[in-house]
């Protein structure tokens, strides 16, 4: 569920059209009453949704409301909206995939804050987008699929580093959550989670990943094995080299597969920019500025936003996949970075391809048309 600040940022714009009080006199009760009376919404508005204190807004909450009112005034002027418009708040619909937060008469607005994190996607989804296909499916493992031999070697080196670096007994306790133990007995290894889930491998030096995966569960992999790795071998040069070699092989094979996407404009790419079938407006406000952008329709944007180039980078041992997009209408470029990595411990589950806007890049608004 969205937090209080998100609700205030979105509802505050709607509130501005019906408010009759000075900011200093606005209370959570009054704000809630005005919104509930004048704004259509698919949920019941409660005090807990808009304030940490049912009697008074704190300084940060009031600042958000103030900025939202500024934006509401600008929207009213720019779109020539008369008194008492029809407003629907859709931002509280947690099941909705739409970027729209507020509909004012016929105008649709997204009021989301900028975020460098776009989506926790899987590799299959990234490949489907870049190659304009649906041939790839959930569960695709980047290292098994694109660097099988190097991945097996990385796992083998990890096991040997555990034997070499120790300790013979690894123990980690988190109160009221878990008690984990890892034991080395000659060449054998025992993984123990909360004394209820336990597995022993007799000769870790000959253990392959398939056997390891089949005989362990997520608890043993995430809370015992991966934490032991982090505690013991993460900085071992042999481990780092094996992991990096796996990342290089996987990255190069992915580039070989998707290089043909350069110069294309796949329809799925538009989801990165939150471009929909119908046009809408993206609005944001800070203490110092207010801006409104027109987000084009899908059919209008598809030919103007193209993949300029793709490449990989591997700082230390982390595989990063980069996609540079160019807007042909204004020459602006934006770079997305997908981190291809485990999110819940090394060798546990399927690595993600979490998508970020590169911090040295422009933001999503470079693909929109600023109208204010």
Measured between the Cα atoms of the first and last residue, the distance is: 31 Å
Structural class: alpha+beta
SS field, number of helical segments = 10
Kindly state the number of beta strands: 16
Helix content: 25-40%
Q: What is the H/E order?
A: HHEHEEEEHHHEEEEHHHEEHEEEEE
Sheet with the most strands: spatial strand order: 1-2-3-4-10-11-16
**Average pLDDT number:** 90
Tell me, briefly, the overall form: globular
Oligomer: single chain
Give a short summary of the structure.
The protein is an alpha+beta fold. The protein has helices spanning 4-16, 28-38, 59-78, 123-131, 142-146, 148-165, 209-215, 218-232, 237-258, 298-301; strands spanning 39-40, 87-89, 102-104, 107-110, 117-119, 169-174, 178-185, 188-193, 197-201, 280-285, 290-295, 305-313, 319-327, 333-341, 352-357, 369-370.
Primary descriptors:
372 residues, alpha+beta, seven-stranded mixed β-sheet, five-stranded antiparallel β-sheet, 10 helices, globular
Write the layout of secondary structure elements.
Layout: H1 4-16, H2 28-38, E1 39-40, H3 59-78, E2 87-89, E3 102-104, E4 107-110, E5 117-119, H4 123-131, H5 142-146, H6 148-165, E6 169-174, E7 178-185, E8 188-193, E9 197-201, H7 209-215, H8 218-232, H9 237-258, E10 280-285, E11 290-295, H10 298-301, E12 305-313, E13 319-327, E14 333-341, E15 352-357, E16 369-370
Parallel strand pairs: 1-2, 4-10
Antiparallel strand pairs: 2-3, 3-4, 5-15, 6-7, 7-8, 8-9, 10-11, 11-16, 12-13, 13-14, 14-15
Helix pairs in contact: 1-3, 6-9
């Amino acid at each position: 569920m969205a937090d209080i600040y998100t609700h205030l940022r979105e509802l505050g714009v709607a509130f501005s059209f019906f408010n009759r009080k000075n900011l200093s006199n606005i209370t959570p009760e009054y704000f809630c009453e005005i919104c509930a009376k004048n704004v259509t919404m698919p949920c019941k508005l409660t005090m807990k949704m808009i304030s940490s204190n049912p009697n008074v807004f704190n300084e940060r909450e009031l600042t958000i409301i103030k900025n939202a009112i500024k934006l509401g005034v600008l929207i009213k002027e720019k779109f020539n909206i008369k008194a008492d418009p029809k407003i629907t708040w859709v931002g509280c619909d947690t099941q909705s995939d739409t970027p729209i937060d507020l509909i004012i008469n016929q105008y649709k607005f997204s009021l989301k804050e900028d975020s460098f994190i776009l989506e926790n996607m899987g590799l299959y989804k990234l490949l489907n987008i870049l190659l304009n296909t649906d041939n790839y499916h959930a569960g695709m493992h980047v290292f098994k699929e694109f660097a099988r031999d190097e991945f097996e070697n990385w796992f083998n080196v990890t096991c040997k580093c555990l034997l070499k670096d120790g300790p013979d007994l690894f123990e980690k306790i988190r109160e009221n959550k878990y008690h984990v133990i890892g034991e080395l007995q000659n060449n054998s290894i025992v993984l123990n989670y909360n004394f209820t889930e336990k597995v022993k491998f007799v000769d870790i030096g000959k253990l392959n990943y398939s056997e390891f995966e089949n005989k362990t569960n997520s608890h043993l992999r995430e809370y015992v094995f991966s934490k032991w790795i982090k505690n013991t071998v993460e900085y071992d040069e042999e481990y780092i080299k094996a992991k990096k070699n796996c990342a290089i092989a996987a990255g190069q094979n992915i580039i070989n597969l998707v290089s043909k996407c350069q110069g294309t404009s796949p329809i799925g790419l538009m989801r990165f920019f939150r471009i929909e079938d119908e046009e809408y407006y993206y609005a944001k406000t800070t203490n110092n500025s207010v801006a409104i952008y027109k987000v084009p329709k899908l059919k209008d944007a598809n030919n103007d936003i193209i993949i300029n180039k793709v490449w990989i980078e591997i700082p230390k041992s982390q595989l990063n996949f980069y996609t540079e997009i160019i807007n042909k209408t204004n020459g602006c470029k934006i770079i997305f970075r997908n981190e291809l990595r485990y999110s819940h411990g090394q060798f546990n589950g399927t690595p993600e391809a979490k998508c970020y806007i590169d911090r040295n890049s422009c933001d999503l608004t470079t693909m929109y048309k600023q109208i204010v």
